[in-house]
Amino acid sequence: MSNRILMFIAALLIVFPLLVVRNTEFAGADVLAEEMIQQIAPNYEPWFDVFFEPPGGEVETLLFSLQAAFGAGIIGYIIGLYKGRKRNG
Amino acid sequence: MKKPLFLLVSVCFTVYILFALSPSVYAMHIMEGFLPWQWALVWWLLFLPFFFVGLRTMTRLMKQKPEVKLLLALATAFTFVLSALKIPSVTGSSSHPTGTGLGSFLFGPFVMTVIGTAVLLFQALLLAHGGLTTLGANAFSMAVVGPFVAYGLFVLCKKCGISLRMSVFLAAMMADLVTYVMTSFQLALAFPDATSGVWGAFLKFASIFAVTQVPLAITEGLLTVVVWNFLHTYSKQELDVLAERGVSLK
Q: Which keywords has UniProt assigned to this entry (chain A) (predicted)?
């Protein structure tokens, strides 16, 4: 299968839940797990807290998108480099 | 690459990154402080030997075959991208892929332990996702179990005569899925259910993590094949160099 088709299927898989599943905010699975822990062990207290937390969702979003952008940039650069190298023999 | 294909690639990456930008972003690893210290310690101790062997393997590889450095950067970047993307799933919640499969076939599972741990550490320190006390447990599932399953399955698929791309797909998909099965198991051991015990708790956690992960694992498998196709077309010589070390990548 060509990359085009593979990417298309991948995109479909991501869009499908958005169209089909309603009335949900697509919360993170870890938050649900946290609720499950509180249900199973109601007396459990987290014994350690994070050193640094991004101040608010927007900053967190920035850091996450930087992580993705940085990675995507490197992937593009390396594949481009390999491609150019092959073309130039 | 032809222009329409390039456009399509850009669109797909944009779609992915837009999901990473959604306001309710969460990590899928065990949160800081959410494992009792005894369990945190157990997983740290189990994880550390793999990490040290990984460091040694990686430095040796860099010394012997410096030409594969770029490929190592690519595998790292792939893990960084995929674990930054929260993707909606059919269960109505979100999770993110792991991206550990690709590096596992290329460099072997131990090297991927180091790379996966680097990503987890980054997310624990800067993004408050996962945590330092739970790093041992999270690294054990994502950077040890995932890569080892990927590598083992890849070798097995090839032995069974399954085509190369299909092997890549299956191994990357299972590495992703098994990471979250392991996470569920770790949580179940620490928080057994009062009536149904560890197994009952495992089913509960797995219903959150593993089920959500199924479509994401398939997506990860597909994207891994996409990158693999590029490598197979444009960087044959690096793959040849890596193949000398063991499993054939052709």
A: Cell membrane, Cobalamin biosynthesis, Cobalt, Cobalt transport, Ion transport, Membrane, Transmembrane, Transmembrane helix, Transport
Say if A43 is an interface residue toward chain B (CB within 8 Å). Answer: no
Question: Strand, coil or helix: what is B166?
Answer: helix
Q: Which amino acid is at B160?
A: C
Helices (H), chain B: 3-20, 37-64, 69-84, 101-107, 109-126, 135-139, 146-159, 164-190, 197-234, 236-243
Supply the ipTM of this predicted assembly: 0.88
A87 at the B interface (CB within 8 A)? no
| pLDDT tops 50 at residue B40 | yes
| Average pLDDT score, chain B | 87
Range of the domain at B143: 31-244
For the beta sheet containing B93-95, the strands, ordered from the edge strand earlier in sequence to the opposite edge, are A27-28, B93-95, B87-88
Distance from CA of A81 to the nearest CA of B (A): 9
Residue B175: inside a domain? yes
CATH number at residue B185: 1.10.1760.20
pLDDT digits (tens, 9 = 90+) for B62-93: 999 898 999 999 999 999 999 988 888 888 88
Q: Alpha carbon of A66 to those of A69, B29, B123: distances in Å?
A: 5, 20, 12
Token pair of B53 as six digits = 């062997």
**DSSP 3-state of A27:** strand
Instruction: Tell me whether A16 touches chain B (CB under 8 Å).
Output: yes
Question: What is the residue extent of each domain of chain A?
Answer: 1-86
Three-state SS across B173-235?
A: HHHHHHHHHHHHHHHHHHCCECCCHHHHHHHHHHHHHHHHHHHHHHHHHHHHHHHHHHHHHHC
Q: Are strands A27-28 and B93-95 parallel, antiparallel or unpaired?
A: parallel
Q: Could you tell me if residue B18 is inside a domain? A: no
Beta bridge partners of B87: B95
Residue B140 placed within a domain: yes
pTM score, two decimals? 0.86
How far is the C-alpha of A55 from the C-alpha of B199, rounded, in Å? 38
